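Ticket #4471: structure output looks truncated?

Reporter: J.K.
Steps to reproduce: submitted the chain below (247 residues) through the standard prediction queue, then opened the result file.
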Amino acid sequence: MRIIRNKLLFNTRRASSVASRASKLCNTQDAGRRTRQGFTLVELVVSMNAAFIVMVTGALLVSSGYRSWNRAFKTANSEARLGALDTMISLGTTGRKSNKMDYCLYTYSSGKYTRITASNPDDVLKGQAIEFRYWDTELDSSLMNPSKTATAYAFFYLENGQLKVDYGPFPIGGPGGVNAAGAISGTATTTITLAQNVTSVEFSHTARNSTGDGNGCIRMKLIITDPTDGTSKTTLAATLMRNTWPQ
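Returned output as attached by the reporter:
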């Protein structure tokens, strides 16, 4: 009995020792696992470099987009572009309501405007100023007269690098924008500067008779020098006169 008890006691102590060693081994492995959680210095440096590359790439994309938008905004709102746009709108709206049977195209030389005449029909006539004539009042019985070809005029001309337009009444039998001596003499109620820094402007049409009357289509070639970069920008436009009176 004593031998059996001693043997059981030995086996119990031995099992306890094995369990203790196993527990210590597990604790050591768990401690190793806990120690290996997180990043090493090399991993941290690599991660920081990758994040830096992403940030730099994003900053370059944002900066490039901002510069592109800024260039587009400056181009769209440049003085030359806005002046050309104003001129095109004014020419188009005035021409469409004008009388194609009564308008004048002029050359300009030595301070004098001279109406252009054609040597042959179908000639393309070119000048530096044009005078439209149109109706700016409601139609009534007083206007139903062949001699009343318009009630107002619009005179487009170049002066000191500025493209201007004079608006005023057109008296029947009297002058519009230019008198017989070739000077601007119309009673302008409004003068508008359409474009600045204009290098040249050319109005043209195709004649249908020797007096220089056209077929009702006016073309314009406008060259503006941009003051910011010194480049020249050319604008082409046209307007078709729809009204015919008297026919």
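Triage note (M.O.): checked the attachment and the full token line is present. The mean pLDDT is 82.
Status: closed, working as intended.
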